[in-house]
Amino acid sequence: xxxxxxxxxxxxxxxxxxxxxxxxxxxxxxxxxxxxxxxxxxxxxxxxxxxxxxxxxxxxxxxxxxxxxxxxxxxxxxxxxxxxxxxxxxxxxxxxxxxxxxxxxxxxxxxxxxxxxxxxxxxxxxxxxxxxxxxxxxxxxxxxxxxxxxxxxxxxxxxxxxxxxxxxxxxxxxxxxxxxxxxxxxxxxxxxxxxxxxxxxxxxxxxxxxxxxxxxxxxxxxxxxxxxxxxxxxxxxxxxxxxxxxxxxxxxxxxxxxxxxxxxxxxxxxxxxxxxxxxxxxxxxxxxxxxxxxxxxxxxxxxxxxxxxxxxxxxxxxxxxxxxxxxxxxxxxxxxxxxxxxxxxxxxxxxxxxxxxxxxxxxxxxxxxxxxxxxxxxxxxxxxxxxxxxxxxxxxxxxxxxxxxxxxxxxxxxxxxxxxxxxxxxxxxxxxxxxxxxxxxxxxxxxxxxxxxxxxxxxxxxxxxxxxxxxxxxxxxxxxxxxxxxxxxxxxxxxxxxxxxxxxxxxxxxxxxxxxxxxxxxxxxxxxxxxxxxxxxxxxxxxxxxxxxxxxxxxxxxxxxxxxxxxxxxxxxxxxxxxxxxxxxxxxxxxxxxxxxxxxxxxxxxxxxxxxxxxxxxxxxxxxxxxxxxxxxxxxxxxxxxxxxxxxxxxxxxxxxxxxxxxxxxxxxxxxxxxxxx
Length: 678
Known about the structure:
The protein is α+β, with helices and mostly antiparallel strands and 678 residues long. The chain has 3 domains: 8-188, no CATH class; 192-417 and 432-453, PH-domain like, CATH 2.30.29.30; 474-553, no CATH class. The chain is 60% helix and 8% strand. The chain is built from 25 helices and 10 strands. The longest helix is centred in the middle third of the chain and has 35 residues, at 431-465. The radius of gyration is 35 Å and the shape is extended. The relative contact order is 0.06.
C-alpha cells in the first residue's frame, strides 16, 4: 500500500521500515502521525519519513548479536537519505532542478579541490563517473540528518566535515558506491582491531579498546630512540594508554605503558631524529610527562612524507583531549563517560576507514576526530560546554547510541555497568536524541562559518608572506609612508615653520597637562579616529580601500643581490650599535668606570629630588615648553649644538666592558651567577 502524498522512494522506505518492524504500513503511519495531521504536505511527508526511519533504526540496532554493516543496511540507510531529501511528490520535481543547480555551483569548487588533491584515489577520480548515477545521490543535509539519528557513518559534531571528505571529487554529492565502500571499510577496521593481541605483560581494563597497532610483521616499522640507540618494536594505542613493546629474538619484551588518562602534566609533539643525534628526519614524536625524567621518542620511518607520524600524533592527541574533557567537566557517571569514549572510538574507526579508501591522498585527521576538530574551531571552549550538555541529555543506553552501536558491530569486551542498565523500549524513537543534538549542531555550524572567515583572512595574509624579499621590503616602505609624512608634519610644528599651528599645539599641550586632562585628550583622539573611519566608510573609494597599490621599479638579479647585501649590512650595523649601547650602560651601572658612574649617580640624585619636591605636571610642562622653545632662537640652537657635542664626547669616553665568548654552558651559568648580586 502506498501512502498518499509521499514520493516513490519515500513509499518504498516506509514499506521497508514496516517490514523491519513486523507491522503494517497503515499502523506505522498512524503511529508516526501521532493523532494529528499536518496541513503542509511537505512537512507532513518529511515527518512521516523521519519517524518511520527512526523506529526502524531502533529496531535494527536492538539486537547486539547481529552484524548490521552489510549491503542491505547500506542500501536501506542510503534510501533513507534519498527519501528524506524528496519525501513528497512535490519534492521530486524540485529535487531534480536543485540537483542540476547544485552541481553547477559546486563544479568550480570541485575542480579546485581536484587540483589540490591530484593524487586522489583512483576510485574517486577515474572509475566513479562510470559507476554512479546522478539521479541517485544525496546532499549534505540528509547525511547530517542520518548522522544525528545513528552515529555510524559520522558524528553530529563532524558530520559536515566527513561529508566534505567523502564528496571531495563528486561535486558535493554522495553516491551510493562511495557510501557502501565506506561502511564496508568501517566493518573491516572493526574486525581488524578485534584480532589484535593484548600488549605483552599487560591486561586491558573492561572498557579499553585497541585503536591502532603498528610495528608488526605485516605493518610498517616503529622505532624507539633511547640516547644513541634505536629499538624497533610494536606500538599499540588504546583509549586509555600507549604501549610500546621492544622486539626480542623470538617475541616481544614487556610493554612500556604511557598512561594517557592520568591527570598529570603531559604533552606529545613532533620532533626530528637522525644518526648520532643529528636532526635529519622529521618523522618522529616525543611524549613527555611530569612523571618521567626523559621523554619517549618514537619514530615512524617512511620514504617520502611524514603522514604516518602525523596520523599517530592526531590519534594520541585525540585520546589526551578525551580524558582532559572528562576531567574538565567532572564527568564521573560510568554511562556518560563510556558514551564519550564510544564516540571517540567510532571517530577513530571512521578515520581508519577513510584512510583505506583514500590511500594515495589520506584525509585530514581532524575531519573525523571529534575533540581535535572542536579544539581547532573558534570558540572551542563553548563547543565543549555544548558537547557536555548534549552528553548529559542523550540516553547513551539507547540502541542507536554510540556505545550500543559498538556492541552491535561485534565489540564484545565493551560493557555498560550493571547498576546503570535499564530496559529500553524498542518501539521508542530517536527524535528526542536528535533534538538534543540540535543545539550542539547549531553551535558547530556557527563555529565553522567563523572558521571560514578566519581562513579567508589568513589566506590574504599568506599572499603577502609569499612575496619575495625585495617585494616585501618595497611593500614595507610603502606602508611606512604615512608615518614618515606624520613625522615631517610633527617636525615642522617643533621647528616653528608654521608659527600659528605651533603656538596652538604648545598652548593646548600645556593646558592639558596643567588641567590634568590627559584622559579626556586620549578620549578625544579616539573619537577623532572613529570619525575618520566613518568618513572612510562613507567615501567608499574602491581603488583606495580595497587594495594598496605599490609602485616598484624593475630590478635585475644583480641589483637584487646588492640590495640584499646592503640590507644585511644595515641590520649587522644596528646589532653592533645596540651591543655597544647595552655594554656601555652595563659598564656605568656596575661602576666599571667610576668617573662616569659618579656623574650618573649625581644626575639621578638631582632628578629624584626634583621629582620628589615638584609636582610631576610642572616637570612635564617645563619639558614641553623647553622642547618648543629650544628651536626658536638661533643662540639657543648654537648652545644646544655645543651641549650636544659635550654630551657626545662624554658618551664616547665611556669604555665598553669586555666580553668573553665561552662554549661551556656551565661556565656561562657561573658567570651570570656571579652577577646576581646586582
